[in-house]
Write a structure and sequence with these properties.
The chain is of the alpha/beta class. It folds into two domains: 166 residues, FAD/NAD(P)-binding domain, CATH 3.50.50.60; 154 residues, D-Amino Acid Oxidase, subunit A, domain 2 (D-Amino Acid Oxidase, Chain A, domain 2). The chain is built from nine helices and 19 strands. Strands 1, 2, 9, 10, 11, 12, 18 and 19 form an eight-stranded mixed β-sheet that branches. It has a four-stranded mixed β-sheet with strand order 6-7-5-14. Strand 1, helix 1 and strand 2 form a beta-alpha-beta unit. Helix 1 runs parallel beside helix 6 and helix 1 runs parallel beside helix 9. It is globular and about 65 Å long. It starts with a strand and ends in a 17-residue tail after the last helix. The protein binds flavin-adenine dinucleotide (FAD). The site of flavin-adenine dinucleotide (FAD) has 45 residues, from helix 1, strand 2, helix 2, strand 13 and strand 17.
Length: 378
Amino acid sequence: MASSSVDVAILGGGLLGWSAAYRLAKAGRRVLVIDALEPGTATNAGAGIIAPGTSVRINEESIDIFSAAVEYYPKLLAELAADGETNTGYATVGSLFIARTDEEADRLPETLELMRTRRAAGMGNIGDAHLVTGAEAKDLFPALSDLPAAIHSTGPARVNGRLMRDSLRAAAEKHGAKLAIGKGSIVTDDDVATGVTVNGETIVAGQTLICGGAWSAALGEQLGVFLDLYPQRGQILHIDMVGQDTSAWPILTGYHSHYILTFPESRVVCGATREHDSGFDPTFTAGGMHEVLTEAFAVADGLRVGKVAEWRVGLRPFARDEKPILGDVPGWRNLFVATGHGPSGLQLGPVSGAGVADLMLGDRPRFDLAPFTAARFG
Ligand SMILES: Cc1cc2nc3c(=O)[nH]c(=O)nc-3n(C[C@H](O)[C@H](O)[C@H](O)COP(=O)(O)OP(=O)(O)OC[C@H]3O[C@@H](n4cnc5c(N)ncnc54)[C@H](O)[C@@H]3O)c2cc1C
């Protein structure tokens, strides 16, 4: 970075950092993103399911931001395409919400009703949702075990988190954003954030944004600000179903917390552990492998022939109350935060980054940031 002064310094170059950077750079701000390349960043490991409307696991208090997120995605993709960035791995492939037992099958009509209610309330990305038999589900996802029934929804999508982040970065750079590699810290003067230091250099910034993922709490701590989040480790398996085109197979979810999704040409992704006591340790463990494989084979026995391609591990920025942390940082001027998305950051990240960027630009945020304020931690 030739200049030692920018309009905005962003600490963290994951999906959140680059989502905000793209908006801010497009609005003409001189943006510097600083990234420490920490091992185990969440965006590098994220599965890529975008299906909040068909989930029984999302925090209902956050339903509005999930709606805003699925509405924003296609608009953002069109903007990125206009900037020449189309390689995001995004595709609408639908989902199968599976019942593994007869008891779960009995609950499907109620869950279908929940999806339809959300759709009627305006939530996108659900599409046509209806019950299917186990055999019909297997026609859609050939590796499926013999299961009683499922809900097939046509609207859910998947995205490749790494490609999405890289597309946002490339587009932001086309609008002038810069990247510095190194571990940054915040510089203050009285109650004002005045910039950052990185690699021994101080960069004056009109505004500073914390997007440090699971490492964000440490950045808050420097200033005596409590951001109540911690790393939740996720281990996830990529296999290749050699010779099979899996690209149109739907996402598999259900009442259990594990899931499966696919990417072209033959990639199948089986996720994931949710480990709350891992600390910042991005290790693949024998127990993690066992858990992921056991859960995957229980619902998709046909995956046993798959060739192990890759294990990934990421540290989700997990807010203890399971809500993102967005907006200005209480007690500090010119300081903002966008983090805490836990297991939902690939779906929420783009709209969250854009919403906080709206605030920083002095515009009305595109969704209500109030429920996500860092002030809630006292
Ligand atoms: C296994 C797994 C599966 C997932 N599946 C899904 C899914 O299907 N759908 C979904 O919506 N979400 C999913 N997620 C969650 C999603 O990946 C995360 O919520 C999201 O990627 C978080 O992005 P982030 O930018 O906040 O954090 P990160 O991607 O972790 O990025 C934070 C960045 O900050 C940098 N940093 C930290 N401290 C500093 C510092 N002091 N200076 C400079 N840089 C710093 C780090 O190097 C890092 O690059 C999954 C996560 C995992 C691990």
